[in-house]
Structure formats: C-alpha cells, structure tokens
C-alpha cells in the first residue's frame, strides 16, 4: 500500500486468542528524479504499533526500512497494526510517497532448523510431527473462535428478530387503541349533536 512520509496507516486483523503473528515489511521511497520507487529507503525507519481489541498496546517499536515484527494475541478480536515512518522532515517538505510491502502470517510456527539437523532422521520426523500437532491445535483454536463469533452473531440476530416482533405487536395495539378511541369520539360527537 502507499502512504505519505509522515502519515500513519493502520490495518485491522481479526486474530484468535493465543496466536503468534509474524509480519514482514519493506519500505520504498518515491524518487522524484527517476519517477520510481527506490529499492531501499536508507535512513528511513518505521514505527510499528500493535493494539489489542481492549486498547492494550502489545507492540510499539522502531524498525529499519525493512524488518520483521512478531507478537502473540492474548484475546481474540480485531487487532490494529499501525505503521508510521520516523521521518524528521517538516510536513511541507515530507511530501514524498512511500510504498510499503507487507506480509502478515497468522498462526506462524517456528522450526529450529539447526536442532533438526543435529538429530538423526527419527528425531527429525518426531520434531516435524510435534510441529504438525501444534498446527492442528492452532486450527482447532481458530475453529473455536469462529464458533464463538457465529454464536454471538446468532444471538444478536435472534434478539433483533424478537425486538422487531414486539415492536410490531406494540404498533398493532397502538393502532387498534387509536381506532377504538376515534370511533368512540365520533359516536359521542354525533350523540351530542343529536345526529344519531
């Protein structure tokens, strides 16, 4: 995505609880001479801030023009990931555009390759099997999270339908009451004027 040099850009990522998130990014600065984005942006860094759904800051750190950030979600919900350059140029001068390449992997798992190489083939298979089991647990947690969201949505829909039904009943009772009152008022009016 593109952003201004001093502008803050945020993305929202819906993440289950107890999930490791790994993000890789690379920043390119617009060059007015070549009319293209430079492959690297020397001296330019990025502040990366991650906020949980409750507003707690999980990560706030300055990185270079490219880097990797990681954090673990402790509760499920929408996490906000914000990027802002550390440019010290004035806003008038800092009209330069930035291009940010971002890759976010949710539920990433690390394998220690040096430990795997040190062990024999049986142990390597064992470590990979443990990694697969961990990934299965991650998928299970994500399915549980989706079930929670579906259950909340269903409860909200049922409550809305119930409220609509009661509102329709109340409107009908009010309409019937007004109709009866109008008929009674007209009858009393006609009786008082001796038209009936």
Automatic annotation (TrEMBL):
UniProt subcellular location: Endoplasmic reticulum membrane; Membrane
Coiled coil: 115-142
Xref: InterPro entries: Emp24-like, GOLD_dom
Keyword DNA repair: no
A family per Pfam: EMP24_GP25L
Domain annotation GOLD: ranges: 8-106
Membrane topology: Single-pass type I membrane protein
One GO term describing the cellular component: endoplasmic reticulum membrane
Keywords: Coiled coil, Endoplasmic reticulum, Membrane, Signal, Transmembrane, Transmembrane helix
Transmembrane segments: 164-183
Stated family: Belongs to the EMP24/GP25L family.
Name of the protein in its database record: TMD11 protein
